[in-house]
Design a protein that fits this description.
Layout (H helix, E strand, L loop, with lengths): L11 E8 L2 E9 L4 E6 L20 E6 L22 H14 L5 E6 L1 H12 L4 E7 L6 H8 L8 H8 L11 H9 L4 H18 L6 H7 L2 H15 L9 H4 L9 E6 L7 H10 L3 E6 L9 H13 L3
Parallel strand pairs: 3-4, 3-5, 5-6, 6-7, 7-8
Antiparallel strand pairs: 1-2, 2-4
Helix pairs in contact: 1-2, 4-6, 5-8, 6-7, 6-8
Pfam families: Abhydrolase_1 (PF00561)
Keywords: Aminopeptidase, Cytoplasm, Hydrolase, Protease
Subcellular location: Cytoplasm
Length: 318
């Protein structure tokens, strides 16, 4: 069973001005002369962490991590009043291009999971000449059925106890309606306590359902109010706007991935991003290898997922 590479520290960090008053945090670790790879984090609004450097052989890769607009170490942070109106998928794609150019990278391997898979696909379909390969995990295609499954009650049939906690911040007379919109009203409330309560409930719902077996530490991490305000605020903003993509865009344009090698790693029991989306992507992009991990849920940190992701990054080593 493959495990993560040893802990490493960045060799270079910075903040890049990408316009709209936004400065995105970035870091580079590993071999400065290695093959470039960019880690595209989830959420949207999830931010980067030190563990994410460890999917890659530090002797072989120049490992680029960055925090997307409004979260992590990027500024201004949503918890500090950052502007959501300038936070869209097209702008995030543009930010990735500006970062690539800033770091003088010609082409890079793109690695993303959950929302990171969404943004990675959108980026690759827009800039296929800059992508030498894709490693994707926990596929999210932004189809209405996916949003409805997770925020409309489907996943609640598997986790009724956790679903009740998710519903708690929403007034009872709004619980049978569109919960993404109901949450939006709470998250945008002038009552800061109500907004924070909603953000924590939204954020911990995802942490609590992302693992095959419960992981209380992840729930605790997601209950941090600053993290939750960005995570919930940005996710809700994107999901109520179809992630600023046309309906079924990522599958419709999957032909643009022809010739780009890829690996899709999907947990069989992923409740957040069910395997049907990975299956649909594989059908539309047969050039990618699909690995379904039978003893895993959604999280990239689950042992079976780690094994196959590290195998994939080793496969793409120069």
């Amino acid at each position: 069973m493959r495990t993560l590479y040893p802990e490493i520290e960045p060799v270079e960090t910075g903040h890049l001005d990408v316009g709209d008053g936004q400065r995105i945090y970035w870091e580079v670790s590993g071999n400065p002369d290695g093959a470039p790879v960019v880690f595209v984090h989830g959420g949207p609004g999830g931010a980067t962490n030190a563990l994410q450097r460890r999917y890659f052989d530090p002797q072989a890769y120049r490992i680029v991590l960055f925090d997307q607009r409004g979260c992590g170490q990027s500024t201004p942070h949503i918890a500090d009043g950052g502007d959501l109106s300038v936070n869209t998928t097209d702008r995030l794609i543009s930010d990735m291009e500006k970062l690539r150019e800033h770091l003088s990278i010609d082409t890079w391997l793109v690695f993303g999971g959950s929302w990171g898979s969404t943004l990675s696909l959108a980026y690759a379909q827009s800039h296929r000449d800059r992508v030498r390969g894709l490693i994707l995990r926990g596929i999210f295609l932004v189809r209405p059925s996916e949003i409805d499954w997770y925020y409309g009650g489907g996943a609640g049939h598997i986790f009724p106890d956790l679903w009740e906690k998710f519903l708690a911040p929403i007034p009872e007379d709004e619980r049978d309606g569109n919960l993404v919109e109901a949450y939006h009203r709470q998250l945008m409330s002038e009552d800061s306590e109500a907004a924070t309560r909603a953000a924590v409930a939204w954020s911990t719902w995802e942490a609590a359902t992302s693992y095959l077996l419960p992981k209380p530490d992840a729930v605790q991490d997601n209950s941090n109010s600053r993290f939750a305000l960005a995570f919930a605020g940005i996710e809700n903003h994107y999901f109520r706007n179809n992630c600023f993509l046309e309906e079924n865009q990522l599958l419709r344009d999957a032909h643009l991935l022809d010739g780009i090698p890829g690996v899709i790693v999907q947990g069989r029991y992923d409740v957040v991003c069910p395997a049907t989306s990975a299956w649909a992507l594989h059908k539309a992009w047969p050039g990618a290898d699909l690995v379904i991990v039978d003893d895993a849920g959604h999280s990239a940190a689950e042992p079976g997922i780690v094994h196959h992701l590290v195998e994939a990054t080793d496969r793409f080593r120069p």
